[in-house]
Amino acid sequence: MKKIGLKYTLPVLRKGKKIVSVPKGSTKIIEQAKQRWLVEYYYENPETLKPHRIRETIKLNRIKDPVEKQIFADTYVKELTDLLKSGYSPFSDNNDLKSDIIAISLKDAIDQWLEYHLSKGSRKKSIGDFRSKSSFLLSYFKADKKVKDITTIEMTNMMLFYEKGQKWVGTTFKNSRIAYVNFFNFLKRIGKVDVSPMDNFHERRKILKSTRHQIFSEQDFIKIKDWLFKNDPYALYFLQLLYYTCARPSEIRKLPIKYIDVIEKKITIPASISKNKKTQTIPLDPQLADIFIGLSIDKFPPNYIVSGSKKEMIGDKILPEKEVYLRIQKCYDDLTLTDKGYTLYSIKHYSNVRRYRNGWKLEEIQTINRHASLSETENYLRELMKDVTVTRAAPVF
Known about the structure:
Blueprint lengths: L2 E2 L3 E2 L2 E3 L13 H6 L4 E7 L6 E6 L9 H20 L9 H8 L3 H15 L3 H17 L11 H14 L4 H20 L28 H14 L1 H13 L3 H6 L5 E2 L4 E4 L10 E4 L2 H9 L10 E5 L3 E3 L5 H14 L10 H13 L4 H8 L4 H11 L13
Antiparallel strand pairs: 1-2, 3-4, 4-5, 6-7, 7-8, 9-10
Helix pairs in contact: 4-5, 8-9, 9-13, 14-15
Family: Belongs to the 'phage' integrase family.
Protein name: Site-specific integrase
InterPro entries: CB (IPR044068), DNA_brk_join_enz (IPR011010), Integrase-like_cat_sf (IPR013762), Integrase_catalytic (IPR002104), Phage_Integrase (IPR050808)
């Protein structure tokens, strides 16, 4: 153990006994995290002038997640080392002073949160979303503000400030709140805050309606379909894939044709491209099956992508995310539909509303959308159809 001068040694993380066997279904990292961890160092006792061993668990063993536990431990060792170098003494300085000195800044907290998700292998989109949300935190608060000093009223004021200034609509506001709840809960779990300022967050009074992902009207759908048929067969094909599968645009962009079974009439969405990281199967609509047969899908290599070619439709590349977006946007521009809130998701929503109106059961809509429960499907349809106007008279009494 290396000594620094005559006062103390460098803090060292102790992870308990060495793991020699791992139970089935577990990993060495998980089993090691179950051990009692502590941070150990020696500091010269001012009375005896002899090294005194100090061991701290600093709530370390309350953390169950291996990645969170490792991040917290590494951060604490670094902070304690800096603290000792700055002159801190465990014999003369109290714990309150120590807590104030090593309290984490907002910028460092965000860095640790991102490190955690990178270590966990979180989705790139999730990491990108939080990077975006964290930029608002850093813009509203100072980067060196201690996270333990951020209050509920400050978070409420920040959210309302951006709702007004950035025109955060319902979905954006809701997703931002969820991101900040998760962020401060993470800080609670690793002992950086005692109470989350989002625990008693004051919800805004007015719910603003989102203007994006609106459902196509029947008239606009016909216009869009006709325009694409004449001007952009690839974009038309991509919309047909979305319409018949109710899959997400990102899933259609990445789906290899080996997961499409024209004979058994089914499509498998593999976990590697699915948003929920689960492999799930949906029925292949007969009309979409005819489209695949017309493209001679069986003649392409199995690893080719169902939307991988602007010319052949099926190809060997995953086309850029903006490829279809820009093509559809040109259609909206030419038809003067840009102010209606239409996106690629509009076709999926339109498909589901038509299915429901044509007599599909909730269970069937749940299956095609891969919803986890019927209540999720009900809520989804309720949200889509909340603005439907009644145009027909009731049946005769």
